[in-house]
Amino acid sequence: MMTSMEPRVSHPRNTNPIRQSCQHCFLLVKWIPVVFIMSIIAWSYYAYVYELCILTVNSVLDQIIYLAGYHLIFVIFMWSYIKTIFTDVGGVPPEFKLPQSLYDRLNEADSEGTTRQLLDSFARNLPVSNTTMNGAARYCEKCYHVKPDRTHHCSVCRKCVPKMDHHCPWVNNCVAFKNYKFFVLFLGYGLIYCIFISLTSLQYFVAFWKGHLEGMGKFHILFLFFVAVMFAISLGSLFSYHCYLITKNRSTLESFRAPIFHSGPDKDGFSLGRYNNFQEVFGDNKALWFLPIFTSLGDGLKFPIRSMTCYEAMGNTQQRTGCENTVIEMPQPCV
C-alpha cells in the first residue's frame, strides 16, 4: 500500500484580521441555535419545577411524583443532548489520503479516464464498495482522500465525516457514526420529556381557562403546555423518521440519494434486517441500548453489504436473529 503524506497543497495561513474576525463571528453564530434550545429547556425547568410543582400543585404526593418523574427524564434527556453536541464525529484515517506523488499526477492528468485509473489503482487496496455514478472511486477534492463507504464531506465542519447522516444546527455538530445513537436518544427522550410535561400540566392548563388559577405563574403554565405540545409534535415526526431509517440501515443522505455499488444504486445495500440494523446502531449489550453510552458496532468506515454471514461480517461471535439465511458481501476493492 502506498504511504500517505500530509496535505498535498499547502495554503498560507490567512493573517487578515478582518477575515479572522469574520471566522470567529461565524463560529459564535453557529452556537445560537444551541443557546436557543438551552434557553427553552432552562425556562421549561423553571416553569415546571417552580411555577407548576412548587407553587401550583397542592398535593404533596403529586409534587413528589411529578418532580421525581420529571428529573429522571430531564437528566437522561440532557445527557443525550450534551453527548450529541460534544462528541467528536471523527474523520478519515491517513491510509485513505493520497500521497503527494499521486496527487501531483492527478493534477497533471489530461483526461477523466486517466484520473479514474489513478484513483481506482490507489483505492484497490482500500475497503471501499461505494462508487460514483460512473463506477469510479469516490474522491474528496477538498480533503484529498478516497472516501470510505458512507462518508461525506460536510461544508460546515469542513471535513469528511464517517457515516454522515446530516449536519444539525440545533446541536452545532454533524450527526454521524459516533453520535448517531446519542442523537436518536435525544429525540426520543425529548419527545418523552414534552409528553410528560403536557400530560402532567394539562389539568392546570384547563384550570387556567376556567379562571381557577391566579397570579403571573398561570402564564408560565399556559405557555409551558403550548410549547411542550408544539415540540412534542415536531420531535415525534423526526423521531419516527429516524426510527424508520434505523430499521432500513439508511442515513438521511442515503434516503435522498441511494449509495452506489458496483452493481448500481441500492438504498437497501447496507440493510441486514431490522434487528441487525438496530444492533448496528445500539450494539449488542441490551443493558446499554437506551443509555447515551457509545455501543454502536463497527468502526464507521467499513460496513457489511450482501457475502458472508452477518455475524461474521459484523465481527461478532454471537449469532444474531435472522442471520442464518442472510448473505452479505464485505466491501471489495475498486477495480
Automatic annotation (TrEMBL):
It catalyses: L-cysteinyl-[protein] + hexadecanoyl-CoA = S-hexadecanoyl-L-cysteinyl-[protein] + CoA. One of its GO terms (cellular component) is membrane. Residues 136-256 form the Palmitoyltransferase DHHC domain. Keywords: Acyltransferase, Membrane, Transferase, Transmembrane, Transmembrane helix. The chain crosses the membrane at residues 21-44, 64-82, 182-207, 219-241. Its EC number is 2.3.1.225. Its main location: membrane. InterPro entries: Palmitoyltrfase_DHHC (IPR001594), PFA4/ZDH16/20/ERF2-like (IPR039859). The keyword Membrane applies. It is found in: Membrane. It is a multi-pass membrane protein. GO terms for molecular function: protein-cysteine S-palmitoyltransferase activity. The DHHC domain is required for palmitoyltransferase activity. Belongs to the DHHC palmitoyltransferase family. This is Palmitoyltransferase. The lineage of its organism: Eukaryota, Metazoa, Ecdysozoa, Arthropoda, Hexapoda.
